[in-house]
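mind reviewing this stuff:

——
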Amino acid sequence: SVTLKYEIKKLIYVHLVIWLLLVAKMSVGHLRLLSHDQVAMPYQWEYPYLLSIVPSLLGLLSFPRNNISYLVLSMISMGLFSIAPLIYGSMEMFPAAQQLYRHGKAYRFLFGFSAVSVMYLVLVLAVQVHAWQLYYSKKLLDSWFTSTQEKKRK
């Protein structure tokens, strides 16, 4: 249980870094702190992805007292607030990625790089982080459930 909690915490911290970078990018885009040539306006999937911090917080809240309910809520909300926006984002950005691949033309930029390329990289990293979070959370849930059942038998 302790090892699984440690692994999940590491993944939550990585997710927090991704989330903060996304918030910074969106803030710069909306507040027009830099020109649109430097930082493109956010894609639509980025807005609901901002809620992805909720499952991570629920996961952290479940750790001190091994709260199964919070961990289950964290896993369910991770599907809704993390995985679903990422799937939508991959579909939303696909035409721009296809345009870039076929014709070499990009219309949105992020500090001189194609925004769709950078955001797909972020998307792939986020999917991996959330998939590992779900995997370790499921293992932790099984561990807690088993220990709870053993306590009830005694």
Remarks:
- The CA atoms of residues 108 and 115 lie 5 Å apart.
- The chain is about 75% helix and 5% strand.
- The first strand starts at residue 109 and ends at 110.
- Residues 1-153 form one domain.
